[in-house]
């Protein structure tokens, strides 16, 4: 089955700086890679996703890049703000209409 | 909130007792999922369902069973709860046209003492 590894586990940046979180996956057949944001005490929420036929996708300050050859994908957050502080999870599809998640990255944006 | 609710929101139980968590959806989605969340492990799939009475195991299914007798309800049962099953449990549904997009319920905090 799919295995997704995520790093770093914690990331601290200054407000206004960029943040990058990276994930690798094992199953070359995977073709859908979402990112979820979870604020403290809340449910995970989808913030952006990418499919394998696309190399990059942007939505305002966030972007995701995918390298299928190397089997890794990354989340980029520019001009970080305190409200970006949360735990971020990457995921890959298992081919069974279910997702395998990475272990999460706790992002702290220092004002 | 994609019309998904979980109950109870919090539960404390004792080792060896049975526990059932309920997930209810109002939008007739075919796919429903149960995940558990533990520090350092992210979200791990327990079981999922792709229709009434159609279920399959996830990566951490031991000690759990599920049932789906109606489209709107997906039940997760711990037959004999253990302390290792203390966790936050999230139910999720997937949207209609993009089956991979998951929408999560608010979660159930379960403590097994």
Model description:
The complex is a heterodimer of chains A (111) and B (113). Chain A is an all-beta fold. Chain A has strands spanning 4-7, 10-14, 19-25, 32-38, 45-51, 56-59, 62-67, 72-77, 86-93, 99-101, 105-110. In chain A, strands 2, 4, 5, 9, 10 and 11 form a six-stranded mixed sheet that branches. In chain A, strands 1-3-8-7-6 form a five-stranded antiparallel sheet, with no helix packed on it. In chain A, a hairpin with a 5-residue loop joins β9 and β10. The mean pLDDT of chain A is 94. In chain B, strands 2, 4, 5, 6, 9, 10 and 11 form a seven-stranded mixed sheet that branches. A four-stranded antiparallel sheet of chain B has the order 1-3-8-7, with no helix packed on it.
Briefly characterize the structure:
The complex is a heterodimer of chains A (111) and B (113). Chain A has 111 residues and is mostly beta strands.
* Content of β-strand of chain B: over 45%
Q: Please write the string of helix (H) and strand (E) elements of chain A.
A: EEEEEEEEEEE
Question: What is the number of helical segments of chain B per DSSP (H or I, 4+ residues)?
Answer: 0
Compressed to H and E, one letter per element, the order of chain B equals EEEEEEEEEEE
What overall form of chain B do the CA principal axes indicate?
Answer: globular
Give the amount of beta strand of chain A, in percent: over 45%
Mean pLDDT of chain A: 94
Please describe the biggest sheet of chain A, giving its number of strands, its sense, and whether it closes into a barrel: 6 strands, mixed
Extended strand count of chain B? 11
Shape of chain A: globular
The number of E-state strands of chain A comes to 11
The proportion of residues forming helix of chain A, as a percent range, comes to: under 10%
Helix content of chain B: under 10%
Oligomer: heterodimer
The largest sheet of chain B, given as strand count, sense and whether it forms a barrel, is:
7 strands, mixed
Note the total helix count of chain A: 0
**Mean pLDDT reading of chain B:** 93
Regions with little confidence, pLDDT below 50 for 5+ residues of chain A: none
Q: Roughly how many Å is the radius of gyration of chain B?
A: 13 Å
**What would you call the structural class of chain A?**
mainly beta
Q: What are the low-pLDDT stretches of chain B, counting only 5+ consecutive residues below 50?
A: none
């Amino acid at each position: 089955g799919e295995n997704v590894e995520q790093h770093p586990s914690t990331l601290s940046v200054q407000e206004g700086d960029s943040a990058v979180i990276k994930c690798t996956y094992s199953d070359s057949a995977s073709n859908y890679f979402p990112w979820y944001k979870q604020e403290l005490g809340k449910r995970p929420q989808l913030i952006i996703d990418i499919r394998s036929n696309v190399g990059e996708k942007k939505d305002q300050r966030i972007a995701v890049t995918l390298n299928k050859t190397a089997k890794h994908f990354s989340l980029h957050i520019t001009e970080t703000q305190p409200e970006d502080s949360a735990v971020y999870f990457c995921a890959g599809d298992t081919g069974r209409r279910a997702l395998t998640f990475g272990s999460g990255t706790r992002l702290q944006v220092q004002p | 909130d994609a019309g998904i609710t979980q109950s109870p929101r919090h539960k404390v139980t004792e080792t060896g007792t049975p526990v059932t968590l309920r997930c209810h959806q109002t939008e007739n989605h075919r796919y429903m999922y149960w995940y558990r969340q533990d520090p350092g492990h992210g979200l791990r799939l327990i079981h999922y369902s792709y229709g009434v009475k159609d279920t399959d195991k996830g990566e951490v299914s031991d000690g759990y069973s599920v049932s789906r007798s109606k489209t709107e309800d997906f039940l997760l049962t711990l037959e004999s709860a253990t302390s290792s099953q203390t966790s936050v449990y999230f139910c999720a549904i997937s949207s209609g046209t993009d089956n991979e997009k998951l929408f999560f319920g608010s979660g159930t905090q379960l403590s097994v003492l």
